[in-house]
Amino acid sequence: MHDHTNTHLISPPRSWAEISLDNLEINYAFARRKGDTMAVLKAGAYGHGIIPVAKKLESLPEKERPCFIGVASVIEARKLTKAKLQTRIYLLGASCSFEREEIVMQRWTPCISSIAEAQDFDRLVAAARGAPLPVHLAVDTGMGRGGFLPDDILACIDSLCSLTNLIIEGIGSHLPSADEDEKFTLDQFELFHSVINKLGSDRFRYKHLANSAGILAYKSLYTNLHRPGLMLYGISPIPEYQRHLSPIMTLKSRVSLLRKLPKGHGISYGRETILEKETKVATVGIGYGDGYPRALSLKGADVFISGQRCPLLGRVTMDQIMVDVSELNHCEEGDEVELFGENILVSEIARLAGSIPWSILTGITPRVTRFYK
Fold first, then answer.
1. Distance, CA of 136 to CA of 166 (rounded, Å)
2. Is 22 helix (H, G, I), strand (E, B) or coil?
3. Has 269 been annotated as catalytic?
4. How many angstroms separate the CA atoms of 98 and 88, rounded?
5. How far apart are CA 165 and CA 127, in angstroms?
6. How far is CA 127 from CA 42, 133, 167, 169, in A?
7. pTM
8. Of 104, 120, 208, nearest to 160 (Cα)?
9. Do residues 35 and 119 both lie within one domain?
10. Active site residue 82
11. Among 219, 260, 269, 373, which one carries the catalytic annotation?
């Protein structure tokens, strides 16, 4: 008798994402040209994998490493701490009251949006008998999502500074329209600078406002910390800067079936596509269950096979798509298919889907295996 339980074959994945850590390093170096950084790795490093991306940045020479890793929640912070990452962890949004004790115990850096939140942190640090906790103040200069309104922070700064268990080491705000509205963004910079001046610039070790679009297209004489997000992953929110960046994720699948279908044959659900001539159709093993957007259906999207663009046919289904490969000289089962990456930017996919690159990248599901190069 032979025990075959540990010798069975494991098939390669049907769809996968190749993540280039070398390209990550190139993009990060470009972001660092503007100064010190908080690397924004929330949402699983925008779908790329928070731990491998964080470890790559932490492996850089000490002077080049980010000052902070920016995350959205204690769940993400906990993951980094459990993986023994040493870079300081910054929580980008307001914390819920039930999260604050863990934040204090782990000494993650919160941003404070109200005097009540600050007082609660002060009380928790005192109760834990720990060293004063470094915190940043968030200012709402137009995002409308969190932070002190400018007049409010000016009125309560003395109360904030009287909380002896907190060290107010930073101040930050956020740009909602840096890739869409230049005038409003310039006004925001001016308002943020004005708040810092009135509070006293020397009061803060870190002053931060710019996201990727802010880093690429604007200059500030007052801020000394930048928060690159999308640009780390090689996609520019402003098209004219794309040439400076290299996408780090390539989403791939394979041709699982190849057939010739006759004129008049329908393709996919709803039969919205009816073939106008005999067509060589490849079925590809990826769909909206993997995060490839269903909204691409009938929008003129392409995939990339054997060095050529091939048009998507019919609706995207949960697990498969169909592609016209009639123009390829050679195509066979098992051929690699690029859904987006260097040859078809995720920005193009997002535009056709009526979406944004951030949403497409973070929507790639766990069913898609990540490989790191």
1. 10
2. helix
3. yes
4. 21
5. 10
6. 30, 12, 16, 21
7. 0.94
8. 120
9. yes
10. no
11. 269
277 with 363, same domain: the answer is yes
- Amino acid in position 116: A
Instruction: Check if the beta carbon of residue 338 is closer than 8 Å to that of residue 18.
Output: no
Domain boundary among 202, 233, 264: 233
Q: What is the dihedral of CA 89, 361, 99, 88, to 10 degrees?
A: 0
Q: List the domain range (segments joined by +) for residue 317.
A: 249-372
Q: Nearest-CA neighbor of 208 among 109, 337, 63?
A: 109
- The verdict on 276 and 326 lying in the same domain is yes
Both 156 and 263 in one domain: the answer is no
C-alpha 181/C-alpha 196 separation (Å) is 23
Give dist(CA 67, CA 87) in Å, integer: 7
Q: Identify the DSSP state of 243.
A: G
From the candidates 34, 42, 79, 207, give the one annotated as an active-site residue.
Answer: 42
* pLDDT tens-digit readout, 31-72: 999 899 999 999 999 999 999 999 999 999 999 999 999 999
Is the pLDDT at 5 greater than 90, yes or no? Answer: no
Tokens of 91: 């929580």
Structure tokens at 107: 């000494």
